[in-house]
């Protein structure tokens, strides 16, 4: 029983990490119709900025309030990077899908190369708070605190995004733009500002995933964003392109499936099962868990 509880909670921690990355992807695709393959770069920037701030920024550090300051610096860096990418590279290409893919894939590769050139290709130890290296006993299972931190953070981000979408003016514009972008534009609303805002939210969530994911794994590396981005895309597709709630459901399914299968089966089998789940969903419900069916 202890093993079941431990696997469930660690699986939910992994799911929380996937959701933090996938939520921004889902928002960006839902409103702007952009498959942003450079999203992992925002995660990498957030992780490395947090790592740098913890050792160099006045007031920041690996423990207590200093860690909060370091994470806030990392999130701000990831948000700024996302806004710059949208304004400089994506905005001129909104009606050119192929060029969007080429530019974001190229930017992703260039970003990894830049991180490697700056801080090296090897993983570096991440300065995480002492309490995240400890465990908490839950119904007899010794659960790592780093995973619990991810679960709490993902729940707060999901609640904040849903509240923003439902109860703010720009949230209403984004929801309306997802349903019918042309109608929103015809009403005289500048959807481009909403595009930039969505990229900023997505970049902030990805940067937070980079910082807290580094706490979870204990290291930071240039390839970290790319590996997590693959599973984030799977989560977005399974959940339904453009649905944040669907991404949350899918992240839980993917995280738990991966964790249980890797534990009870052979190493790596969980990844294969996740891909198989993606194939099943695409065959039986192409629009995803919470997506809307496309009609002719």
Automatic annotation (TrEMBL):
Belongs to the binding-protein-dependent transport system permease family. LivHM subfamily. Keywords: Amino-acid transport, Cell membrane, Membrane, Transmembrane, Transmembrane helix, Transport. GO terms for cellular component: plasma membrane. The gene is livH_2. It comes from the Bacteria. CDD domains: TM_PBP1_LivH_like. It is a multi-pass membrane protein. This is Branched-chain amino acid ABC transporter permease. The keyword Glycoprotein does not apply. InterPro entries: ABC_transp_permease, BCAA_transport_permease. It is found in: Cell membrane. It comes from Micromonospora sediminimaris. The chain crosses the membrane at residues 6-27, 34-53, 65-89, 101-119, 146-165, 194-217, 229-256, 263-284. One of its GO terms (biological process) is amino acid transport. The keyword Transcription regulation does not apply. One of its GO terms (molecular function) is transmembrane transporter activity.
């Amino acid at each position: 029983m202890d093993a079941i509880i431990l696997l469930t909670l660690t699986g939910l921690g992994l799911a929380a990490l996937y959701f933090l990355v996938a939520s921004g992807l889902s928002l960006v695709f839902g409103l702007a119709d952009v498959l942003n393959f450079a999203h992992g770069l925002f995660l990498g920037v957030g992780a490395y900025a947090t790592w740098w701030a913890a050792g160099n920024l006045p007031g920041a550090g690996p423990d207590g309030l200093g860690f909060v300051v370091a994470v806030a610096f990392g999130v701000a860096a990831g948000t700024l990077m996302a806004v710059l990418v949208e304004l400089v590279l994506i905005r001129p290409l909104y009606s050119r899908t192929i060029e969007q893919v080429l530019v974001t894939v190229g930017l992703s590769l260039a970003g990894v190369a830049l991180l490697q050139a700056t801080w090296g290709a090897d993983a570096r130890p991440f300065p995480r708070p002492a309490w995240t290296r400890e465990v908490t006993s839950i119904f007899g299972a010794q659960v790592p605190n780093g995973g619990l931190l991810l679960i709490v953070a993902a729940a707060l981000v999901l609640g904040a995004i849903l509240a923003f979408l439902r109860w703010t003016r720009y949230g209403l514009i984004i929801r309306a733009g997802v349903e019918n972008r042309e109608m929103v534009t015809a009403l005289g609303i500048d959807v481009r500002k909403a595009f930039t805002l969505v990229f900023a939210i997505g970049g902030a969530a990805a940067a937070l995933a980079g910082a807290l994911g580094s706490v979870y794994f204990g290291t930071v590396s240039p390839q970290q964003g790319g590996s997590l981005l693959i599973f984030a895309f799977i989560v977005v597709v399974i959940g339904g392109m453009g649905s944040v709630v669907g991404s949350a459901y899918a992240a839980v399914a993917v995280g738990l499936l991966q964790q249980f299968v890797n534990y009870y089966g052979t190493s790596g089998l969980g990844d294969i099962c996740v891909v198989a789940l993606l194939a099943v969903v695409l065959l039986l419900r192409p629009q995803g868990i919470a997506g809307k069916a496309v009609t002719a």
